[in-house]
Specification:
Length: 351
């Protein structure tokens, strides 16, 4: 079944249009941009749908197509790391988010780290998966063989990105997914072709191989959780562990999975979901509200007056005021609007 989503557009600092959407309600989680991105494919492909449903359960999950990809502007200036952070800023502003958890997958990890350092007051939690602090073209004393292999991947993408019979496509997808089913293989190959042109794929590969956030890692002040698949053939497991070691206080979780992209069918997916839910709940325990307080807050969130709430719930207006006052006290809020917003951000209005 296709996923329902409301896709909108925002404008980055240099005028590039970025396509974005959100699903679910509750505490916001923003996924930083990744290069194999296409919001319409998300709605019809089983694999991204599984991620979206998991991350939207009790949360407001915000995601977007990176520049040059998916539904975002395809004709763009030359890629730069600075632009990836600016695009994330534009998305956050368009959703009017003040504080949120930030999720960085693969190349999105570096963007997330840079954003968390630039905006520590906004990022409540930092979750990274399959990320790296530096890559082949940005690491000192890297071997010539590693450089040659990276150049070969770039050249192969230029030739085989849109060729369904290309050996590159099969090898590339296999390394990303580990041990995919035929349907998972087909979905990612389709996403490759629809998400970007071969020229843009080459630009992103070269950009990814050149990223370096080692110095920024040491400046992260946000509570951080780092995941990495143990048998990842695209970004070596030790790169993930190194990334975690550079971030003060980061918690590292090894996932017993083979691919770079964690498949929803892997047992490790349950570990990922359990760990990130525990992590997001660890810094701030949710206040306890009575069922009546929740009902009153839900009604107020939908714009009802006290009299309308009282009539709908068969209560007196005075009783409604009492329940609202109790909810405001439990949530530590001074106004009704603030109480509704806080309860929604904590996922307390999702019943």
């Amino acid at each position: 079944m296709a996923l329902k989503q409301d896709i909108r557009f925002c404008t980055s600092a240099d005028g590039v249009k970025i396509a974005t959407t959100s699903t679910g309600t509750g505490m916001p989680i923003v996924r930083a941009g990744t290069w194999l991105s296409h919001l319409e494919c998300d709605a019809i492909h089983e694999e991204p749908q599984a991620y979206i449903r998991a991350l939207s359960k009790g949360f407001s999950y915000v995601r977007y197509d990176s520049r040059g990809c998916g539904l975002s502007d395809r004709k763009i200036p030359p890629l730069s790391f600075k632009d990836s952070v600016n695009d994330l800023e534009a998305v956050v502003a368009s959703h009017n988010l003040k504080r949120f958890a930030l999720l960085g997958l693969s190349m999105g990890a570096a963007t997330s780290i840079a954003y968390a350092v630039r905006h520590p007051e906004q990022v409540s939690h930092l979750i990274l998966c399959g990320g790296f602090a530096s890559s082949v073209f940005s690491t000192p004393n890297v071997s010539q063989q590693a450089i040659d292999e990276a150049e070969l991947v770039i050249k192969s993408a230029e030739i085989g990105w849109n060729n369904s019979k290309s050996a590159f496509r099969k090898l590339f997808v296999g390394r990303l997914l580990g041990n995919p089913t035929p349907e998972q293989q087909r979905e990612l190959e389709e996403r490759m072709q629809l998400s970007m042109t071969p020229e843009m794929a080459v630009a992103y590969l070269r950009n990814n191989f050149s990223m370096n956030v080692r110095d920024l890692c040491t400046q992260v002040k946000t509570p951080t959780l780092v995941f990495h698949c143990r048998k990842d053939e695209t970004i070596n497991f030790e790169q993930g562990r190194k990334l975690a070691s550079l971030i003060p206080g980061a918690h590292f979780v090894a996932l017993e999975a083979q691919g770079h992209i964690l498949l929803s069918t892997e047992p490790a997916m349950k570990v990922f979901e359990a760990e990130f839910r525990t992590f997001l709940g660890s810094s701030e325990s949710a206040p306890q509200l009575t069922p009546r307080q929740v009902e009153v807050l839900q009604a107020v969130a939908h714009g009802q007056t006290d009299k309308e709430v009282a009539k709908a719930l068969h209560l007196s207006p005075r009783t409604v005021e009492m329940h609202m006052s109790g909810a405001m006290k439990a949530l530590g809020c001074a106004t009704r609007t603030e109480a509704v917003h806080r309860a929604g951000s904590l996922g307390l209005l999702d019943t």
